[in-house]
Amino acid sequence: MGFLKSLSPFLLSLAVQGSVAVTIPRDGKSGIQWGPCKLNTTLPVQCAKLPVPLDYTDNSSKILNLDLIKYPAQKQPKRGSIVLNFGGPGQDGLNSMLSYAETMGPVTGGYHDLVSWDPRGTGNTLRFACWPNDTTGYYDTLGNTSPGQADTAVGKLWAEGQIIAEQCYNQLKDVGDKVGMAFAARDMMSIVDALDEGGKLNYWGISGGTAMGATVAAMFPDRIERIVLDGVMNSHQYYNTFGEPEMVAATDAVWKEFIRGCVAMPASCPLGRNKTFEVLSAEMQHLFDTFRNNPPVYQNQAVIDFTPFIGLVFNKLYSPSKWPQLANALNDALHGSLDSMVGLITGNHIPQQAQAILGIRCGDKKLRTHELSDLAGDLAAYEKTSKWFWFWGWGYYVMPCAQWKFQAKERYEGDFNVKTSFPMLVVGNTWDPVTPLVSAKNMSAGFEGSVLLTHNGHGHLSMSQPSNCTNGYIRDYFLKGTLPAPGTVCQPNHPVFFTAA
C-alpha cells in the first residue's frame, strides 16, 4: 500500500435536498403486513418488511427492503405507535427490541405499539461488514489499543485506521455511501407513512439514537408528534468534528462517583471498607499506573495490560448495576488476584453489528485528512476534557473516520436550531460516562420549546438507574403531551451500590 500524498482537511458540503427525495407510492392504508418473527423469543412481537428507496437522491433508485419489528401495546385502547432507535449508531432494531421492549414499554404507559427497524448497516439491511471472510481475527484487533498504553500508540492507531478505512472501502464501495443518518431518517418517515396513523412521528431515541432523533426532527420539523432524546449525543460534534471530546466531559466525575459511592456503602462494596474517598482514589490511581507501566501476568499465560483494564472500567461505568462486579474485581486485583477481572474482561462484550458503527458514523462526518497532525486540536481537547478516559474512541472511531473514503450520499447540513411541531423532551443524566448532561443541554438549546429533564442518576441512559419521577414524566409526555417545568430534576429510586434488605 503506497503512501498517500499529504492533504489538508477538506469539507464536503452535501446539503439536504428534499426536492429530489424518492418516495414509494402508498395506497392510503397501512403498507405494512405484520406476521411472525423468525427470532428466538417468547415476546409477542411481530415482524414485517417495508420497501424504501435504496438511494433517496436517485429518482430511478433500486428498492431496499427494511426489516421491521413491533411489540404490541399491552393496554387498551391503543394510542398508535412509538418508533424506537437503540443507538450506536449501529445497533440493530430487531434484536434490540427483544432486550428493551419490556423495560421501555411500561415507561411509555403501555398504550402504544413499539416499532423499530434494522437501520442501514445493521442486520441484513446493507450490513456493513468490512471483513466478513476474515477467519484469523486480525482485523478485529485493529484500533483497539488504548492511546494511554504507550507514547507510541497514537501513531500506530493512525496507521491501523488507514488499514480499516481501506478495507471497508474495498469491501463495500457499492453501498458504503448509503448508510448515513439522513437516509435512515427518511426510512423512518417512510415507516411513519406506512403505519398510517396520522403522518406524524412519535419517537424515543436512546444514546446514538438521539443523534438520529435530532436529525429527523431537524429534517422534518413539521412532522413531530412526540420525540424523546435520552442519553444525548452532541450532534454538532457528531457531524462536524474529527472527534467528539464532549462525550467524555463527565466520565471523570462518574469515576469519582463510583469511588464515592463505594466508600459510602462498604457493606456492599468491600473495596471501600475502612477507607476515605482520598485513600481509595490514591489506590485506584496506583492501580491505573500499574496496569499501564508494569502490567501483571495472568497464570503465566497472558499479560493484562492497560488496554483491557481501562476498557473494562470504562464499560462498567455505563451500568450502576454492574458497579459491584467492577469493585470486586478491582479489590481482588489490589490483593493480587486477577481471576475475577479476567472473567469480566473475557465476558465484557457489547453485541456489535459488524462495522456498522464505522459505516454510519464515519460516512456522516464532514472532515477528512491524510495527516495525523491535523487531528492535534481534537486530540488535545480529549486530553483536556478527561484525565483518565481521554482516549475514548480514538482507535476505532476517530482515526478511521478521519481517513474514511466514503461520504454519505446525503447529510444534514443545518445547525439544529429548529422549531418542531411539538416540543421535544430531552433527558440527560447528571453522571453519564459517555453522553454527558452538557450534551443534553447543548442539543436542547437549539430545539425551540424543548425542555431538559435532568435525571440525577448515574450510568448511561435514564433507565440505567431507574427513577419513578423520570419515568412518570416520559409517560405523561407520550400520553398527555405534558412537559416538566424547566429546571426539573428527578432523583433515582436508589443510590449506587444499593442492595435490597
List the helices and strands and how they pair.
Elements: E1 10-11, E2 46-53, E3 63-71, E4 81-85, H1 94-108, E5 113-117, H2 138-141, H3 153-172, H4 181-195, E6 201-206, H5 208-219, E7 224-230, H6 235-240, H7 251-264, H8 277-293, E8 297-298, E9 302-303, H9 306-316, H10 323-334, H11 339-346, H12 356-364, E10 367-368, H13 376-385, H14 394-402, E11 418-419, E12 425-431, H15 437-446, E13 447-448, E14 451-458, H16 468-480, E15 489-490
Parallel strand pairs: 4-5, 4-6, 6-7, 7-12, 11-13, 12-14, 14-15
Antiparallel strand pairs: 1-10, 2-3, 3-5, 8-9
Helix pairs in contact: 3-14, 4-5, 8-9, 10-11, 12-14
Uncertain stretches of 5 or more adjacent residues: 1-23, 25-29
Instruction: Report the strand count.
Output: 15
Main sheet attributes: strand count, strand direction, barrel closure: 9 strands, mixed
Question: Looking across the biggest beta sheet, what order are the strands in?
Answer: 2-3-5-4-6-7-12-14-15
Shape: globular
Structural class: alpha/beta
N- to C-terminal separation? 62 Å
Mean pLDDT over all positions? 92
Number of helices: 16
Helix share, percent:
25-40%
C-alpha Rg (nearest Å): 23 Å
Q: Any overview of this molecule?
A:
By secondary structure, the chain is of the alpha/beta class. Helices cover 37% and strands 14% of the residues. It is built from 16 helices and 15 strands. It has a nine-stranded mixed β-sheet, sandwiched between helices. Strands 1-10 form a two-stranded antiparallel sheet. A two-stranded antiparallel ribbon has the order 8-9. Strand 4, helix 1 and strand 5 form a beta-alpha-beta unit. Helix 3 packs across helix 14 and helix 8 packs antiparallel against helix 9. The protein starts with 9 loop residues before the first strand and ends in an 11-residue tail after the last strand. The N terminus is likely disordered.
